[in-house]
Design brief:
Elements (H helix, E strand, L loop, with lengths): L2 H17 L9 H15 L11 H14 L1 H6 L10 E2 L2 E2 L8 H38 L2 E2 L1 E3 L11 E6 L1 H10 L1 E6 H9 L12 H16 L1 H10 L7 H10 L6 E8 L5 H7 L6 E6 H5 L3 E2 L13 E8 L1 E3 L18 E3 L7 E8 L7 E5 L8 E4 L5 H11 L8 E3 L8
Parallel strand pairs: 4-10, 11-12, 15-16
Antiparallel strand pairs: 1-2, 3-9, 5-7, 5-8, 6-7, 6-14, 7-13, 8-15, 10-13
Helix pairs in contact: 1-2, 1-3, 2-5, 3-5, 6-13, 8-9, 8-10
């Protein structure tokens, strides 16, 4: 049983106990008020935000909630008036008598339970409050969109293939994951995709050398460089910044998508956990419209570090030799460059750029995924019901996103 289910089950059972038909004469308002206070306090815990809470803490909370129901289950439901222990010649347990000693004993137990729950839950609630505050204070950011395809560029379909575990991380984080370039290269070295991921193409090295020379000499040479690489509006400082950051693996974070009208078997195999993962379907318009939110620690919140910009571009497929050409200075960022053998992927990448080097595997770019995704497609080699259950278990709002099995799934027996 997951931590969420464990806690939710205990909360539900306590609520069931409070709803039971306790005889009016047996209702002890002071005990019911104490139990309700416990229920209310624990109700402030978000059961979908327990990832960082130790399992033993959740188990201890559930056990205390179980104990909190005892005054109802073991006392009030069976209680009898004071002095009426014997009925029809049969003696009833003295622990069920509505006397001061029994009532005060349950009060003491409930007071101890509340204290124990307070000690267990305070750190959980504090962490959850900090997370909500950080989300509220996080900086909004727009995606700079530069993808054009045909006459209806903004309506072109985007796909994001990934293992289920990676999607659950996105659901829990409330957004999409941008991986560090170092991590992308590391995964590629394991044989997942492009073994040249993160390498600097010769054309990028060439343009950087041209740019540095143009900045150094200025004048007509700089004018020609700006004209040739579509950066007339950029200042020399901005050009210098792009030249320096374009190949810095510790400042660039990427999210890869495929620009295709429908599912693709090879992409399922290479990126969708060999068809057992999920594919997220959206459009360019949906992805770039509205504001995304940065993590608090990349919003200048703690040490001043920030993610300066988010950019979406099509990937350029290169021969990886001196014949290659790039026409825009912003195409220099090496995640926008891949070998021509990957051209069939028709990849679009979303890049985030930090203002200084940072050691982290990636970050969640936050936004309500219900506003971004058109559909969640479950892989052709996955059990649809099992995957759907895992996704819905992770977060309740995912139910608002249409979900279906892959069109590539074979006929069912």
């Amino acid at each position: 049983m997951t931590a969420r289910n464990l806690l939710q089950d205990a909360k539900d059972k306590l609520a069931d106990s409070l709803r039971k038909n306790i005889p009016e004469a047996n209702r002890v308002p002071s005990l019911l008020d104490a139990i309700t206070a416990i229920q209310t306090f624990v109700g402030r815990i978000d059961p979908y935000d327990l990832d960082e809470v130790p399992r033993k803490t959740v188990e201890a909370l559930a056990e205390q909630l179980k104990l909190a129901a005892k005054p109802i289950e073991e006392f009030m439901l069976h209680a009898y008036p004071k002095g009426e222990q014997f009925k029809d010649g049969v003696g009833r347990p003295i622990v069920h008598e509505l006397n001061d000693a029994n009532v005060n004993g349950h009060k003491k137990q409930l007071s101890d339970i509340y204290s124990a729950i307070y000690d267990l839950a305070t750190l959980v609630l504090t962490r959850q409050s900090i997370r909500r505050l950080e989300t509220a204070l996080s900086r909004q950011i727009e995606v700079c969109h530069g993808v054009t395809v045909g006459d209806s560029s903004d309506e072109e379909t985007l796909w994001k293939y990934m293992p289920l575990r990676n999607f659950l991380r996105c659901v829990k984080g409330g957004g999409v994951w941008l991986s560090s370039l170092e991590k992308l290269a590391e995964w590629s070295r394991r044989g997942i995709a492009d073994t040249k991921e993160g390498d600097i193409p010769p054309v990028v090295t060439k343009i950087k050398e041209e740019g540095r020379k143009a900045l150094s000499e200025g004048g007509r040479l700089l004018d020609d460089f700006q004209q040739r690489y579509n950066c007339l509006e950029k200042t020399p400082d901005e050009i210098c910044l792009i030249l320096n950051a374009s190949c810095d693996k510790r400042r660039v974070f990427a999210c890869s998508l495929a620009l295709r009208p429908s599912e693709d078997a090879s992409l399922w195999y290479h990126y969708g956990d060999r068809g057992t993962g999920v594919a997220l379907r959206t459009t360019i318009t949906k992805f770039v419209e509205g504001s995304w939110k940065l993590p608090f620690d990349l919003s200048g919140g703690y040490d001043g570090m920030t993610c300066e910009s988010i950019m979406m571009r099509r990937v350029h497929y290169l021969k990886w030799n001196n014949e290659d050409r790039l026409d825009d200075l912003t195409d220099l960022f090496i995640p926008f460059c891949k070998r021509r053998s990957f051209q069939s992927e028709s990849e679009v990448r979303v890049l985030g750029f930090t203002d200084s080097q940072i050691d982290r595997p990636g970050f969640i770019l936050r936004r309500n995924l219900c506003d971004v995704l058109d559909e969640i497609v479950v892989g052709p080699h996955a059990d649809f019901e099992v995957v759907r259950s895992e996704i819905q278990e992770c977060s309740p709002w995912v139910e608002n996103i249409p979900m279906k099995a892959s069109d590539l799934k074979g006929p069912q027996n």
